[in-house]
Design brief:
The complex is a heterodimer of chains A (234) and B (464). Chain A is α/β, with parallel strands linked by helices and 234 residues long. Chain A is 53% helix and 13% strand. Chain A has a 6-stranded parallel beta sheet with strand order 2-1-3-4-5-6, sandwiched between helices. The chains are: A alpha/beta (234), B alpha/beta (464).
Chain lengths: 234, 464
């Protein structure tokens, strides 16, 4: 995980230099793929498309895209859907980051892909501009949280019940600041708006969100492991 | 006496001396209890008739406790009856004397369709017991009259009938799920079966001088008797299995359809919304359709939209859906924390320790959402947080924004229906500039003394 992070940062620098962002669209519906392809911003290059788990793994390894726009529910493979793609392809595509797209807001769907290593999660009803923005954000090494995901995080970590992490190292609870940031994101605030509301730098907000994502992926909190166990992720 | 039994249900009270039969009869007919008891005792001296009658009633009349369960049985019978050709269902045992023909007919129909359900099995028990007692009573009377009674035939017949009846009753209990302990039931069933076997054996052993043929015949009859007695049970097990299999098949089919709709239709609807933009009619229709489909797919209740939501989060989602149908707006409803129920205004005002959110909070939230839809449109965030401190609800839009002090005094919308309502409910409402200085944020808070949270952990799981 740590070397993954380091390589992320290295790749971030390189992608910042080259303006064009290369993405791969993975979804089992051709209508959606073509629709998304047409909707994405002009500076985003679509390297290819894939419709099944197996095809997606092969394509990710083959094309090494910067960002994979990944549907959570996919046919093929061992039935693991998007999470399986991440688990299989990520080790052999070290510079590739995954952004999950789904029509579902169900907690177990969210948890499965995030814990498999996705850097963000947005719903499919998001507009092309929103998806482009999220993809760019992920490419820059940030985490992308939809309001729903933020609300879910607050619930899963017991933040509303007043549980607060004592140290920054603690994985099973959110810090007071992280809770505040999540609360504002759940209200539909953008990162910039969160920053100005809390009087902190936008970069600090991103740090908090990334740290929450890391907790979401690594925490052994009961609520998270229960879902993960259900999806046979552990 | 018969018509009393057949018109209304006679019940043996829980408080009883022997079997509660006299008490039940007295209560049912209005005759004083001592009189009933006296008559019963007197009848008992008339060739044991009173005792037999007592025993028969004891077995056939439900006791006070057991009388609770006929409801599910009868509803089961009703649903089953639709599938079976009409057959005379004798709800209550026929008369003891004078209607032997009816008994013969109904018992034969019941026997012929051995797969009958538990409701129809009940009269069988009583008819068989009645026959057994009729035989016993007839034998007693006949012996009084000096006739030569072939006891070797009558006694086994009584034993067989009683055994069969008891077995039948046990099966009915198993079937109706009234089985308290399966091991105890099993013992009782085995006892009943042994009774049947002994009775059949008695026929042959006590009858003529034993020969090879009578022994073989006896063995065959025992087997046949046991088979006849256990047949309904096996058939019931079989039909239960078939029912369960069918239910599972239906469930699988439904899951299949759900998965297909989820993958194809929801995706298409999402695409339409994406392509059409949040303000268009097409997007609005697609969104409404998507919402309906989601409700159908994931809650399984087709009428979810019709009944008033009792959960605060569900109420907010329903309001969001209703407003989305009328305005070009999309609500993103995010709920966090434990679920809180909505206390209806119609119900008598509960004490301050109630766990529910007042309806006025819902009404104020609705007004705030409506306000955002009317003046801002586009994407509106609704955020509900319930915690030990209280309820916090915010409605954030990206519209032109407005300031409270700029609204004319005669405009009641915000001032009365949001601020006033929250104030009366013991909470506060604030209207402020939205995030980043754009739009409006309406914040409703209700402190905790009126709303402790309920125990169940309400997460996003409910929002598929």
């Amino acid at each position: 995980m740590t070397d993954h992070k380091a390589s992320d940062r290295a790749a971030t620098e390189s992608s910042a230099a080259s303006a064009g962002l290369c993405v791969l669209i993975v979804d089992d519906h051709s209508i959606f793929r073509s629709g998304l392809r047409a909707e994405l911003d002009a500076d985003i290059t679509v390297l290819g498309e894939a419709a099944t788990v197996d095809a997606a793994i092969a394509r990710v390894i083959d094309l090494q895209p910067r960002v994979v726009l990944l549907d959570v529910h996919l046919p093929g493979g061992h039935g693991g859907g998007g999470a399986e793609v991440i688990r299989e392809a990520a080790p052999r595509a070290p510079h590739t980051l995954f952004l999950a797209l789904s029509v579902s807001d169900a907690a177990d769907d969210v948890v499965s892909v995030i814990r498999a290593g996705a850097r963000g999660y947005i719903t499919k009803s998001a507009s092309g501009a929103e998806v482009s923005e999220a993809a760019r954000r992920v490419a820059d090494g940030d985490a992308v949280f939809s309001p729903r995901l933020a609300g879910f995080v607050l619930d899963a970590f017991g933040a509303v019940a007043g549980e607060t992490a004592e140290t920054t190292e603690e994985l099973d609870r959110l810090s007071a600041r992280e809770t505040e940031v999540m609360r504002l994101i759940a209200r539909g605030y953008s990162y910039k708006e969160v920053a100005s509301t809390l009087f902190i730098a936008a970069k600090t907000v991103e740090t908090h969100v990334s740290s929450v994502l890391r907790k979401l992926q690594l925490s052994s909190r009961h609520e998270l492991t229960a879902w993960a166990l259900e999806r046979k992720l552990l | 006496m018969d018509e009393h039994v057949s018109t209304a249900r006679m019940i043996r009270p829980r408080l009883r001396l022997v079997g509660g039969v006299c008490a039940g009869f007295a209560e049912h007919t209005g005759v004083p209890l001592p009189t009933v008891r006296l008559v019963t005792v007197l009848l008992s001296f008339c060739g044991g008739f009173g005792a037999l009658l007592y025993a028969w009633l004891w077995v056939t009349i439900p006791s006070g406790a057991a009388a609770v369960d006929p409801l599910p049985k009868s509803s089961l019978a009703r649903s089953r009856a639709a599938f079976l050709p009409a057959a005379p269902i004798q709800a209550v045992p026929a008369a003891m004397a004078g209607s032997v023909a009816t008994i013969g007919r109904s018992s034969s129909t019941v026997f012929s369709r051995a797969d009958t359900d538990s409701a129809r099995a009940a009269p069988v028990t009583e008819i068989l017991l009645g026959l057994a007692l009729l035989a016993a009573g007839g034998a007693l009377v006949a012996s009084r009259l000096g006739a030569d009674i072939p006891l070797a035939v009558v006694v086994p017949a009584i034993v067989v009938l009683a055994g069969t009846a008891l077995a039948w009753r046990q099966f009915a209990d198993i079937r109706s799920g009234a089985a308290q302990q399966s091991s105890a039931l099993l013992v009782r069933i085995l006892g009943a079966l042994v009774l049947v076997a002994v009775g059949i054996l008695l026929f042959f052993v006590t009858g003529t001088s034993p020969s090879a043929w009578t022994v073989i015949l006896a063995a065959a009859s025992v087997l046949l008797g046991v088979a006849v007695v256990t047949a309904p049970w096996l058939l019931r097990l079989w039909s239960d299995l078939a029912d369960e299999r069918a239910a599972r098949a239906r469930e699988a089919e439904r899951a299949d359809i759900a998965a297909h709709l989820h993958d194809s239709v929801l995706q298409t609807l999402a695409l339409i919304q994406q392509k059409a933009g949040p303000h268009s009619d097409a997007a609005r229709l697609a969104r409404a359709q998507e919402r309906e489909l989601r409700v159908w797919l994931f809650t399984g209740s087709r009428s979810a939209g019709a009944e008033p939501a009792t959960d605060l989060a569900a109420a907010l989602r329903r309001i969001a859906g209703e407003i989305e149908e009328d305005f070009a707006v999309h609500f993103e409803v995010v709920t966090v924390g434990a679920g809180v129920r909505v206390r209806s205004a119609a119900s008598p005002d509960t004490n301050s320790g109630s766990t529910d959110a007042p309806e006025s909070l819902v009404a104020a939230a609705r007004e705030a959402m409506l306000n955002a839809a009317r003046h801002a449109g586009g994407a509106v965030s609704v955020y509900l947080e319930t915690s030990a401190r209280g309820i916090e609800l915010s409605v954030t839009d990206r519209g032109p924004g407005f300031r409270l002090d700029l609204i004319p005094k005669d405009r009641l919308g915000v001032r009365e229906s949001i601020l006033g309502r929250m104030h009366r409910a013991g909470g506060t409402a604030a209207v402020r500039l939205g995030p980043g200085g754009a739009g409006t944020e309406i914040l409703l808070t209700l402190p905790t003394q009126t709303v402790p949270v309920t125990d169940d952990h309400h997460t996003e799981t409910s929002v598929r």
